[in-house]
């Protein structure tokens, strides 16, 4: 492929997707099986036996965010979504920051999921009787070993993503069906047969140990819901922009049901200590409690499929977001190169995969997988909360005129997104302060507050540095107008190989 120059209008993407394809992409990006299999154990370590409460409570602001996404998408479908919407309605600098932190958060997520994938594969190998290779004892809790195995899978799914979203959606649809059948079957069986009595206190958020635990638990839960907006990053490849909104909403409601079901099932089967102590292997531990081999391995297979699908689903929306930023000259031209063979930002997709490999390698400074997961989830939770809040504020600012025209529409379009934004900003700020106040020194450790605060801070600060280069180095007009390139402009040209 030839390099797309800034002198010509960048190409458009092929419109081939329907609402079910969007659901497959968004559901795979949200990765319910991974979130349940790992995220619930991590969250239980913070909030105890109140997982259903925290999942329901976190859904409230997320619902307001989803409404903001849907309404903005109806009036301005764009692969850059939040980057374009916030830039136009609030500030180009804040818009660029939304686009930037979405990129770096996803790259961090890909690195984390790479290790999770490797861990699931190594656990399966252990259950099949393979415990060592060439004299090396296999350890599914080792960041180094799990990352090495996961990188091989990441490379494979990145190459698949290059061939197009339609191909990826078909693959992910098959994986999702298997995952959900296994997940629903084991969770339902666990709810019926679990030894621990059901308690309404599980749904009471006021019994969560502390305000800090509540804030951290909410952001961990926001992380679990994160990914539903992947449906909006492929909105230039759907036949009708409304399909992207439908896909995002369907995915979010489905995730709520799965998370509550999973939470209750885990707490019926496992004690609080077992939940918190097996975070990285929670779903496999549940399977072993409920069935004998080989049936006990099915949840672990589902976890592996979920991790593989979320790797691919993470690469796809990130490449599209960077495509949108590149055609506005806020990122380099390589990101807006489109393959005439596949109709996808192929070069950008490959680069995203390469960046994730680099970050996965850097994460080896945290030797234990469980610690690496905790550090990544906390960092991503803070920046995702910031990104969601800014998008919700953009919706409130853009549709503020509806308050005078129609009170009910004004509440839905302005008040609910604004309240959701305030809630997420408050949670993120409180958690950041609690991290800062929890220690007096920096240490590379998942339980060191300054380290947990440093990672999201670097993500945000690097965004302003990259924005400064885009404004004064690339001289992007985006920082003057705040407007993204029109996704439906007929003059968009196709590049040639």
State the gist of this model.
By secondary structure, this protein is mainly α. The chain has 19 helices and two strands.
List the helices and strands and how they pair.
Elements: H1 19-30, H2 32-47, H3 51-75, H4 82-89, H5 92-127, E1 132-133, E2 136-137, H6 143-162, H7 165-193, H8 211-225, H9 230-233, H10 241-269, H11 272-277, H12 282-290, H13 298-327, H14 346-362, H15 369-398, H16 402-405, H17 407-437, H18 449-473, H19 478-481
Antiparallel strand pairs: 1-2
Task: Outline the structure in words.
The protein is globular. Mean pLDDT is 79; it is low at 1-10 and 487-497. Helix content is 70%, strand content 1%. Strand 1 (132-133) and strand 2 form a beta hairpin. Strands 1-2 form a two-stranded antiparallel ribbon. By secondary structure, it is mainly α. Helix 1 (19-30) packs across helix 13 (298-327), helix 4 packs antiparallel against helix 5 (92-127) and helix 4 crosses helix 15. It has helices at 19-30, 32-47, 51-75, 82-89, 92-127, 143-162, 165-193, 211-225, 230-233, 241-269, 272-277, 282-290, 298-327, 346-362, 369-398, 402-405, 407-437, 449-473, 478-481; strands at residues 132-133, 136-137. The longest helix is centred in the first third of the chain and has 36 residues, at 92-127.
Count up the helices: 19
Which bin fits the share of residues in helices? Answer: over 70%
Task: Tell me what portion of residues adopts beta-strand conformation.
Answer: under 5%
| Helix-strand category | mainly alpha
Q: Which shape, going by the Cα principal axes?
A: globular
Total count of strands: 2
Head-to-tail CA distance between termini: 4 Å
What topology, given as strand order, has the largest sheet?
1-2
| Major sheet description | 2 strands, antiparallel
| Spatial extent as radius of gyration | 22 Å
The arrangement of helices and strands along the chain is HHHHHEEHHHHHHHHHHHHHH
Mean pLDDT: 79
Low-confidence stretches: 1-10, 487-497
